[in-house]
Amino acid sequence: MTISYKVTVPFGDAVIATRDTVIGVEMCQELFIPHSPHEDMSLDGVEIFLNSSGSHHQLRKLHLRADLIQSATLKCGGVYMYTNLRGCDGERVYYDGCAMISMNGDFLAQGDQFSLKEIEVITATVDLEDIRSYRGADPSFGIQASQRVSYQRIRVDTSLSDKNDIDLVPSKPKQLHHLMPEEEISRGPACWLWDYLRRSKLAGFFLPLSGGVDSSSTAAIVGSMCSLVVEAYKSGDENVGRDVRKLLQLGAGDSLPETSQQLARSDYDEYSACAHATLGRAILSIV
Question: What is the pLDDT of residues 183-208, one digit of tens each?
Fold first, then answer.
């Protein structure tokens, strides 16, 4: 009260109005419900939709997310910027990332799915006039907009565009990349295991082999994890390399393993000797 000199404040949904566009936000599950906020927002002039999601991985679920995002911009026009949590958050689920940017029914950018990167930024260049032309070409859109739900506008004295943007070329539409089901099965649990391992600060995994499909499948998934880890730090991901050094207790002058097989060095031993076995400098000990 001493700052704003008001005793009441508005409560409910609002949108942000800049000098050149209007931005709205819907949260996570709101994309999946029958009547999503972006529908009413679009009729009220919102041109950019933001969604910060925490959608966990299920087999082929990316197809559903992509279909809903594409449908939203195909039907309503506008830019939909979708970001998703990535990693294991201490639960038994994995969040697979894969940020996307869509405009007027086309995809302009896509992030990685099942990546070990802690931070990933994707960008796209758009022309706001393309949104207005797209909506203006549909007379029924204007008719429904005249009966719209009105959102309170929080006005911000700034612009997302600049007079020098006239020379920028809008991003071209692109096809989304979808992994095969086998790739999802291989990479999803592998990324979960790596995130759990580095966050828990354990020394590694201990896997007794029974000869059955359960233990052998688990060994294959850990092998997939090691392949992803080696590929990540070889491509320059310093965070992954630093985590591997901590797990393997390597000094600053020690070399990182060159192959996934070296990272997951297998120590075959008799079961009776395993009670006193230690992992040493290995991610996986198999007995």
Answer: 999 999 999 999 998 888 887 888 77
Amino acid at 74: L
pLDDT per residue as tens digits for the range 64-87: 999 999 999 999 999 999 999 998
Counting beta carbons within 10 angstroms of the beta carbon of residue 197, is it exposed (0 to 12), middle (13 to 18) or buried (19 or more)?
buried
Token pair in block for residue 12? 């409910």
Extract the tokens encoding 147. Answer: 């009966």
Q: Where are the alpha helices (DSSP H) in 77-119?
A: none
User: Would you state the structure tokens that stand for residue 193, as one six-digit string?
Assistant: 């295991």
Q: Long-range contact list for 164-172, CB < 8 A, 24+ apart? A: 168/125, 169/125, 170/125, 170/126, 170/127, 170/130, 171/108, 171/109, 171/124, 171/125, 171/126, 172/108
Query: Residue 165 corresponds to which amino acid?
Result: D
Query: How much is the pTM?
Result: 0.86
Residues in the chain: 287
Assigned token pair, 220: 């294959």
What are the residues facing 247 on neighbouring strands?
none
Using an 8 Å Cβ cutoff, are 225 and 247 in contact?
A: no
Residue that the structure tokens 């070409």 belong to: 137
On whether the CB atoms of residues 101 and 109 are closer than 8 A, the answer is: yes
Q: Which helix (H) or strand (E) holds 107?
A: strand 106-110
Q: At what angle do helices 181-200 and 238-248 cross, to 10 degrees?
A: 60
